[in-house]
Amino acid sequence: MKTLYSNNVVHKCLTKTFYRILCSSTGVWNEDLSTSIKHDIERKWRNKLQASVHDDDNQKSKFYVLSMFPYPSGQLHMGHVRVYTISDTMAHFYRMNGKKVIHPMGWDAFGLPAENAAIERGIEPFAWTKQNIKHMKEQLQNLGCSFEWDRELATCDPNYYHWTQFLFLKLYEEGLVYKKEALVNWDPVDQTVLADEQVDTNCCSWRSGAKVEKKLLNQWFIRTTCFSKSLLDGLDDPVLKNWRDIINLQRHWIGECNGTKFEFELEDTLSQVMKHTLTIFTCNPEYVCNASFIAVAPGSILDRLKFDCDSTVESNDVFKRLPVMAKNPFTGERLPIYVTDQVEYEEGMDCHLGIPGISEMDRLFATAANIPISSPKENSQQLNSVEDVDVARGRINHMAQKLGIGGYPCSSKLRDWLISRQRYWGTPIPIVYCKQCNGPQSVPYSELPVTLPEIERLSNWGKSPLLEATDWLNTKCPKCGGDATRETDTMDTFVDSSWYFLRYLDPHNEDMPFSKSKAAEFMPVDLYIGGKEHAVLHLYYARFMNHFLHSIGLVPYKEPFQRLLVQGMVMGQSYRIKGTGQYLPKENVDFSGPKPVEKGTGLDVVSSWEKMSKSKHNGVHPETVLKDYGIDTTRLLILADVAPTSNRHWTSDTFPGILKWQHRLWLTMRSFLNTRSNLQNIVSDTVLHTPEFKEHEARMFDSRNYYLKGVTFNYTTAFQLSVAISKMQGLTNSLRVSRTIINE
Question: What CATH class has 61-255+504-567?
Fold first, then answer.
């Protein structure tokens, strides 16, 4: 029995002798494919398949493949294997198609887990993080990923957070950073503030699971609401492709930009300005000059504040008037403030601007509270047309923007970004406080980075550990040179990850976060791959940062990510005792009967597919899978059967299809090599001109084109890598079925 191949294949085999020698140099084709042989092949080729260094060929078009960088916990899990296998597969595909591929890797290394681990173990967070990065990097390399390690970064490296601080100061200069006393979400376990987005629907912390408390603290905010309309409109940018339902998630988070927020100063009964301000929202900024009162919800920050006089001016069953007033920044008029539930509050707001002239609800409340209803002001007369409204609205908003008190279109529910964290392991905020100078003073750019001090042992006492580092805490004021103290809050880790994709492009730049020319050459990211759990917060903050950088001329596009591939989770089968819900390891379950039961007790057991977790005993260690099956098989198993966007049920029941395909590929190559060694005796001019050969040639030509087109479509458009694998399996079958027996 002999095998006949198409003319094209024969020609390539005859002309690529050197490549042929390399491909068969392992010398094991005549043996059966085993895990041992797979490992031998991997060891031989490991250092020959590394990603190339920066490709400077300007004739090639770029393709930036970015996978969300991991937190260095110390161990890869199967979710990591999935996302990085997907990104590496896409990088290989585009690299082999002649693209100048950017495929970097780094570490989202700041945050509470490292600090808590350091407290528990009595070591420094940096040492803990460094050893975790080392181990996870080795694991990624063992997975065979072609990352460009010369672009590697870690957010806890001063060479990185130097530029995070630089961007903070740029935002500060533009009036987009401010400090304000606010009622915040306090995690009593992790002893730190949480942004609203980090509190789940049960009012529990996203990380510790503790019931969140409300606490009044002075906090740093970034005015993300100034870019609300830009971020909302950006979702219609033609640059965005394949965002699917992520568009709706972002749109829902931002909300309809149908109003405006303003900051009103608070004054006591003696007209003394207080340190608090009040954020109000109105859908009718053109009538803000006609406001007569402000209502706040019971339990809101003003309702909770203890005032010097500690008394109310007036109280009844309908309202409670507070002993403070709000100053209308446009008229100078002092507005009374009432605690009441008799008005409707916009979504996400706990205060309401009362304008009786345009609202029946406001008129009724004003009448009940004996509030004088003011007549229209000269600069806010009756507006009779859409043009009048637009002109008046634009005038008021422009005034507010000049005063630095808001005036940007936004939704009522969207808040500014609270970035203060009362912990050690984060980017220091480059601000100092001087008693001689008025207000916070920014650290000069020339003195960046403000590095974290070394603290041998961290405490967990509910205040920033940086308060203990007195040598670091006490400094000099950059403005007057007098004694000053540093800001002890650190930044939310979402700030670090809001711009890392730009640093990858120019990781060794010592003068700027990145060069404008690099950003112009490689942005936007062509394909961004990560979990759906980051499709709201991280994506929103990264988009905000890029919109800001575009506004100051540092990046060419507003939108940073062109295409998104949101991969599903890897699910493991878990087993629980029916009734108690106690999780059991699989080995403690008896499957011999009609229903699974716990060994020893006979209690009924229910099974389900859940996210892999140690506590649920349903996790799989990647190192075990790599050892049992090898790199290529592991990567194929994680990609096969289901679309990348779907959850992957990890079960050995799905393995045989991939294992059999690899076996068929192995046999096909063995047959090919045996045929190649005897080409002159098998392939003759007479054979090449027979009708049977021509029919075979045409069939293989059609088959190749059909499967090649299908594979390409599923790589470049649909991102259905599982379908691409099935297409390649089909091509393998065509190659084997098309063998023609001749010269029997």
Answer: alpha beta
